[in-house]
Amino acid sequence: MRRSENILERIAKQGVVLGDGGYLIELERRGWVDSGSGREKVGTGKGSGQFTPEVAIENPEALRQLHREFLNSGSEVLQALTFFGTREKLNRAGYGEQTEAINSAAVRIAREVAGDDALVAGSVSRTQLFEREGRSAAGHVRALITEQVRLLTEAGVDFLILETFFHLEEMLIAIECGQVSKLPIVATMTFRPTLTQCSDGYSPAECAQRMVDAGAAVVGVNCEQEPDRILAITREMRKAVPVPIAAQPAAFRTTDKVPCFTKLPQFPDELESIQLPRSAFQRFAANAASEGVQFLGGCCGCNAAYIHALARGLLASGGIAQRDVS
Ligand SMILES: [Zn+2]
Q1: Interatomic CA distance for residues 197 and 184, integer angstroms
Q2: How many A from CA of 9 to the centre of ligand 1?
Q3: Coil, helix or strand for 288?
Q4: CA 300 to ligand 1 centroid distance, Å
Q5: How far is ligand 1, taken at its centre, from the CA of residue 15, in Å?
């Protein structure tokens, strides 16, 4: 891959680009990330819990290894582990003073592994302040995301992935902050507690349209749902906007009553009992590609086996893969 080629050129050239999987939950399983479940009640929907990215400075080799595994499985994009890397969230976890160090180390590690074989995306997630404090947090959110976008840009990411936002209003702030970087923006909402509305009441089609209007180059959905439920959302987005659509589902089985895994009682300490098999991702890749999804990856629960399954699904569908993923 030529580094000079950006994510949009890559999508235009090959039709579908394969992303990577979920970092925090995989690294939590491996013993390097704190789920927060021993400290405060998680899964309350109030933005509690830990799951912060200090592993980038405390155990960089663990992070480097997971990047290598995704790359080896066919990922063409590596996300720097900067999820929940805004200063206030890191402060709550006891790492606020290391905000610069964590963000820059995460980008450096992803870049080292990516070399010329993958693009590096800076990950910017919701701050949790809209869930904790409501809309009055907007000004604070803007300051926090502005700072993180600056750190990621200075560290040299190729583009931004704004992901796992429950409130469209917070996402639109993030897109505005992201545009200062002049980098391409992939923006993916997360639907909770229903599939038909995000937390502040916008449908998938409305979210897609508003994100495009705000300047996102690729829009879509990530996390919370398994592939089949995610596809119901991308279908609505595909109809609403002409830009490439992104989908990064979780690998956990949800229910009609509770279609989001972080609201299930199994989160976070019994996730193994709702883990989906990787074959679901192989099928998903073929279906998503045939429905016009052009950026595919996995979110929580997806380790390298799931990315390999996506790559095989795309290969079988003729959707991708100049690299050897058989
Ligand atoms: Zn996730």
Answers
A1: 26
A2: 26
A3: helix
A4: 4
A5: 24
As given in the structure block, the two tokens for residue 139 are: 């000004």
Residue 253 Cα to ligand 1 midpoint, Å, equals: 13
Give the C-alpha distances (Å, rounded to integers) separating 61 from 98, 103, 275, 299. Answer: 18, 16, 26, 21
Is the full-model pTM beyond 0.85?
Answer: yes
Say how far apart CA 260 and CA 120 lie, in whole Å: 28
From residue 256, alpha-carbon distances to 123, 228, 248, 282, 300 in Å are 29, 12, 20, 23, 19
Measure Cα distances from 96 to 121, 155, 279, 313 in Å: 22, 18, 40, 41
d(CA 77, CA 152): 16
Structure tokens that stand for 109 in this block:
């590690």
pLDDT in tens, 165-181: 999 999 999 999 999 99
One-character DSSP codes across 90-119: HHHTT-GGGHHHHHHHHHHHHHHHHTTTSE
Residue 55 CA to ligand 1 centre (angstroms)? 17
Q: How far apart are CA 234 and CA 232, in angstroms?
A: 6
| Ligand 1 midpoint to CA 302 (Å) | 9
What pLDDT digit, counting tens, does each position of 71-104 carry?
A: 999 999 999 999 999 999 999 888 999 999 999 9
Alpha carbon of 117 to ligand 1 centroid (Å): 24
Phi, psi of 61 (to 5 degrees): -65, -35
Phi, psi of 243 (to 5 degrees): -85, 165
- Residues near ion ligand 1 (CB < 5 Å) are 223, 299-300
Expressed in angstroms and rounded, the spacing between residue 111 Cα and the centre of ligand 1 is 22
